[in-house]
Amino acid sequence: FSITPLLNNRDFHSVNLSPYFSQAYSENAIRVDLGDNLKCYMACDGEYIEYENTFYENMYYELENERGLEDKENHYIPGRYEIDIPANTEKEIFFALSIDRKFNNENFENLIRKEEIRLEKICKIANAKNKTEKLLAIAADNFIIEKSGGKTIIAGYPWFSDWGRDTFIALEGLTLKTNRFTDAKNILLRFSKYIKNGLIPNVISEKGGESYNSVDSSLWYIEAVYQYLRYTNDKDLLEQVYSKLKEIINCYMQGTVNNIYMDDDGLISAGGIDTQLTWMDAKVGNKIATPRNGKAVEINALWYNALKIMEYFSVIMNDDFDKTLSTKVKQSFKKFYDDEGLLDTIEPFRSDIRPNQIMAIGLSFPVVTGDKAEEILELVTRKLLTNKGLKTLSSENEAYIGKYEGDMYHRDMAYHQGTVWPWLYGMYAKSYQNVKNEKWTIENEEELLNDDCIGNVSEIYDADEPRRPNGAFAQAWSVASLILLSE
Fold it and tell me: Smallest Cα–Cα separation from 348: which of 297, 397, 280?
């Protein structure tokens, strides 16, 4: 029986056609130098046969071809392991590879058992009782990583980094609902260091915060701090970040970069015709796939929510905070009222039926209550709710695109024009709880966990049946939403 490893080292947005690496023996393991100061160690309970500069050429990637990307790649083959298996017998074979540790005559069964024990501990901490809850707790663990001396959340695999918006939308499900409070605090403190001009960065690289092009990340951050206190009552965190929270509010009121500012009516306006600052941010060249500049409905729902949270925090901190502004915002928010549901944006006016309006009824402090809230929930349920998440645009709209497919241009144009997003399940469930005062659940959690990457949840689905899983095969906020729905 032969095991032949194919090795490569590259960014997840590219291919490597010249993977020339070097190798050396390191005790019982093989060390391969992959460049960029990166080494990997391989070990196996078989005989190693070394090759000299051997390559697997022209591996074909079908999905990349469908997406209009580079679809062929070469890989380095350092050698192969050969294991003798006598006829009519069974044999367990262990192969291990690591980029951060050597193997020193390890018992591979012990390595596997250590990981099983670690995952069992995670499930116990999360108080996961049934199979689905355990799968979700383990799925959550995939996204919580150590980076630059602190904890953070990877937005998705294989091609996302740690994004501010995704981190704080996913924080409650991944860390608080699973009782990983120390991780949650570490993440909140880490991001607070990179707040600039009142904005949470979209990305934190080794150089620091980058891409401050999100109008909602800072408002989701305030919501995440509130949720952390709700779960833990740990006022120490609030004391450490309170000045940063006030900075966010003041910068939004006075105006900050990317044309983000509070208008005279108390509502937040953001961006221009060539910018995309909300979560519906697809852009192809200079073309905005889903224009949402001006006053967006969920941004102002988040703004009202943030103001109410700061009123609550100011009492805890014995600090003065203007409690009249939230009243003004709530009154001005009625400008979003439409004949049915809420407008998606005003100034400029857009009446597309989208799921963003549920933020007005699903956040900790809903800006819309009563009959109008019932109407919003009924509209979203009827027009957008599916068995995989919420559609991003009603199928009745002439701009609706039912399938997410084709090259990058066509996929980005479809990204928020109907495509279904599982993460919106979490906000829908909170909206349902606020409006109906009862819990909303789904019965197909295991199906979602097995649609694509087994034990994880995809980023998106086609809007039309049969709703193929698409995008990143494992997405943090998709998993987080299902955790919020679990008992």
Answer: 297
The number of residues in the chain equals 487
Eight-state DSSP code of residue 21: -
Residues 6+ apart with CB under 8 A from 2: 80, 81, 82, 83
Q: Contacts by 66-74 with C-beta closer than 8 Å and gap 24+? A: 66/405, 66/406, 67/406, 67/407, 67/408, 67/411, 68/406, 68/407, 68/408, 68/409, 69/408, 70/14, 70/15, 72/15, 72/17, 73/8, 73/15, 73/16, 73/17, 74/16, 74/17, 74/18, 74/19
Taking the model in full, what pTM does it have?
Answer: 0.95
| Residue 82, both tokens | 């050969």
DSSP 140-162: HHTTEEEETTEEEE--EETT---
Confidence of residue 29 (pLDDT cuts 50, 70, 90): confident
For 55, the enclosing helix (H) or strand (E) is: strand 47-60
| Cis previous bond, 469, omega within 30 | no
User: What's residue 467's pLDDT?
Assistant: 97
DSSP per-residue codes, 187-225:
HHHHHHTT-BTTB--SEEETTEEE----SSHHHHHHHHH
pLDDT reported for residue 26: 67
Residues 366, 370, 371, 374, CA torsion sign: positive
DSSP 8-state code for residue 52:
E
Residue 309 Rama label (left phi>0; alpha psi -120 to 50; beta): alpha
Start-to-end CA distance of the chain, whole Å, equals 46
The pLDDT value recorded for residue 25 is 79
pLDDT in tens, 264-313: 999 999 999 899 999 999 988 888 999 999 999 999 999 999 999 999 99
